[in-house]
Amino acid sequence: MNQNGKLLLELKNLTTVFPTKRGLVKAVNSVNLRVAPGEILGIVGESGCGKTTILLSVLRLIARPGSIDAGEIIFQGQDLRHLPPQAMRGIRGKAISMIFQDPLSTLNPIFPVGEQIREAMRLHGLVKGRGRRTLEKRRVLEVMAEAGIPAPVSNYRAYPHQLSGGMQQRALIAIGLVCEPALILADEPTTALDVTIQAQIMDLMRRINRDHDAGIILVTHNLGLAAEFCHNIAVMYAGHIVERGPVDLVVENPRHPYTQGLLACLPRLTSREKIDPISGSVPDLADLPSGCTFAPRCPLVRDECRHTDVRLRAVAPGHYARCIQYESGERYTLKKEA
Amino acid sequence: MNTSSSLELASWRHPWQIRLRLWRRNLAEFFGELLQHPIALLGGVIVLLFILGAIFATHITRYDPYIGSLRDRLQPPMWREGGSPEHILGTDAQGRDLATRIVYGARVSLAVGILTVVISVAVGGATGSLAGYYRGKLDTGLSRFADLLMAFPFLIFAIAMMAFIGPGFGNLIFALTFKGWVEFFRLVRGETMSEKTKEYVEAAHALGRGNSAIIVSEILPNILQSVLVLATLRMGFFIVTEASLSFLGLGIQPPTPAWGSMVAEGRDVMLSAWWVSTFPGLAIVFLVLSLNLLGEGLRDILDPRLKVE
């Protein structure tokens, strides 16, 4: 993890906005995150809290009229936010790859999967010169085998709809893997799959992380999955990061009421306790409540929550929470973490 | 691992060879399905016969389509009294063999149909995919222009246009494509807009693909099939329109054998020699009908929504 202090990705004050008829929506609101080489960072939260928007911001794929409003995206020392489009295209898929949620709709329906994997490699001209095609195909078969696709040679020419959901996701991972990226952005890679396949896919991701020392950002709404798989966890709520820290601290000793609520929502096989859901729903991002955005749903809400600005503050070394209880504590700064 | 041996690394080929191979395989699949669709098959076979007839016209008949013999004027078809096997479908007022002129007329009809469709697809496809992908002012401008053209009835528009620029083969193609591309523009624009929202397009962006590459190699292959269906159907329509213009004297000019003008020539002798107008008219009906059958059949075969995986 973060031993040599070299960072793979650092987001500073990242703010991504979408203008809507009802006002400016800050889907990602002053988010600070860092990923070290070989680190797996989990971003957890409910639908619409801005998890996926962070990933798309990193690749600068925010669709208009949305835009990255402020902040820096430092990847391997260069600020992606101000990279010319041509150079940005060279980063996408090569140095940073993305694995999407729904594999069937992410694969182009009319090309065989092997061709699509090879296309990803061809696009960045990784192999050059004579015998390129042979080498490219050999590499594709290698990656397919690595991604756990059985009989890669015959599955090379299979069309996406001829594969099972798990195989489709493996093909998608193979596409993400073929250029050996330094960072993999995984957007709920297992949501569309059934549980046994989920475990296999996560196992595969972990192996990729270990074998290639690739950093992974895993976006999921499944806190259990993140707890199992990640080194660090960031919990998001309404565009803000409300808690982050090493997985053990966040899961064993959650400090933010929202994280506590999320953990209480996890069903447990061993007990028949009733699940205690967080009441209410995510606030309207175009019309955020003043003060703490979680206040309307918070079981521990106090009067001052509704008008005090809260910030991420250290609650333990490396463990931060954004709640008024810790407001007197040490303020989180970018320098502190480094 | 029997299947794998056929795909060993040694058989690795150039991308376009792969595309070709895939295409060939799809083609085999396609013909398999065509064989099981009797209506499309019937349409396809008749269209094919017309095409072969047009190509090998000089070998099919020994008569000259332009020069008749006045001695043989207005001979009835062979099965009528006074007809002879020399002229299967009879002769026209100038003593030209009607069957010969119909076979040569297929050249005009098919040339007009194919050229008009190809140009319309090229123009409509290019503008439609740009407008559907980039939207914005370009799309607004093109769409309003398309709406404007759509507001005119096709035949009236073509008549006005031909009256303005004068008859002739090139002018005819120009007049037909001037309005004909709009249908393809609208189809491709709409399909591009819907394909563009699909995740595989976003994934292609995430892989570092540029916009033009995404249009050409991701989106267009996905909408090719609907374009093919529309092209077949529109071809029949263009052929009818050409015949109508030629009938009115605005299209292909006599003595060039075109079905429309042949029908017009037969009007004067309609009561005494009905066959002069009737057979070219039937040729139009058969070609257009079979093109439409083929188009409808293609729609059934190619539409993936109708397919059960």
Strand fraction band of chain B?
under 5%
Overall pLDDT of chain B, averaged? 87
- Give the helix proportion of chain B (percent range): over 70%
Q: Please give the order of strands in the largest beta sheet of chain A.
A: 6-7-8-3-9-10-12-11
Count of individual helical segments of chain A: 12
Low-confidence stretches of chain B: 1-15
Q: What is the number of beta strands of chain A?
A: 12
Oligomer description: heterodimer
How many runs of DSSP E, i.e. beta strands of chain B? 0
Order of H and E elements of chain A: EEEHEEHEHHHHHEHEHEEHHEEH
Largest sheet of chain A: 8 strands, mixed
Distance between the termini of chain A: 13 Å
Q: Let me know the largest β-sheet of chain B.
A: none
The value of Rg of chain B in angstroms is: 24 Å
Given the structure, what is the number of helices of chain B?
Answer: 12
Instruction: Please tell me the overall pLDDT of chain A.
Output: 86
Q: Can you tell me the residue ranges of chain A where pLDDT is under 50 for at least 5 consecutive residues? A: none
In which range does the helix fraction of chain A lie? 25-40%
What order do the helices and strands of chain B follow?
A: HHHHHHHHHHHH
Structural class of chain B: mainly alpha
Show the helix and strand layout.
The complex is a heterodimer of chains A (338) and B (309).
Chain A: E1 9-20, E2 23-35, E3 40-44, H1 51-58, E4 67-75, E5 78-79, H2 85-91, E6 96-99, H3 103-106, H4 113-123, H5 132-146, H6 152-155, H7 165-177, E7 183-187, H8 195-212, E8 215-220, H9 223-229, E9 232-237, E10 240-246, H10 247-252, H11 257-264, E11 313-316, E12 319-321, H12 334-337
Helix pairs in contact in A: 4-5, 4-7, 5-7, 7-8
Chain B: H1 2-5, H2 15-35, H3 38-55, H4 57-60, H5 98-134, H6 136-150, H7 154-165, H8 169-196, H9 199-206, H10 211-247, H11 259-266, H12 275-302
